[in-house]
Design brief:
alpha+beta, 4 helices, seven-stranded mixed sheet, Aminopeptidase, globular
Length: 179
Amino acid sequence: MHSPQGLAKQDPWQWRLACDAHEVHRLLLVSDAYHATQDHPAPPRNWQTSQRHTANGAVHGLYYYGELVGMVTLTSAPPHGFDPLAFKPDSNPLYMQRLAVHPQHQRTRDMVGLRCVKRALEVATEQHATAVRAELNPYLTDVVRMLTLVGFVCRRTLRDATMHPSVIYAEYRLPQSRG
């Protein structure tokens, strides 16, 4: 990432809705590749889903000097494969998905991942959502830990006989809906 001289007086960090599906999908893939291991490869990603979320204005991008370095997608519908019994019925939840951070901004003081989560909570509050829900990869322990520290309540779900969690469901109840 670069820091152009002419922009030194402006805030280099900008939030905006992502409008380039190629850019969104590319960040998703490089973020996944960064976290992948031989035992836990990157998940398959659907290009059409990136296009749909981008076209629907669901991808909130964090730009650093004009380059997309972090993003989070917020939708009113759960992602494909989401267990409908994972949570109690709710009137207006939003679903946080496709949280991605460029590898050059991983584990830095920039805290791009945390900024993305906070942005999701701000947008959900503005949209009068009752909760923000997410389906997490249990092997991304830093993400699970971060969401827990922010206030998400996490629970593991076993989908097979291995007794290893295949997914973690997380929920953050927004203040106006607590009570």
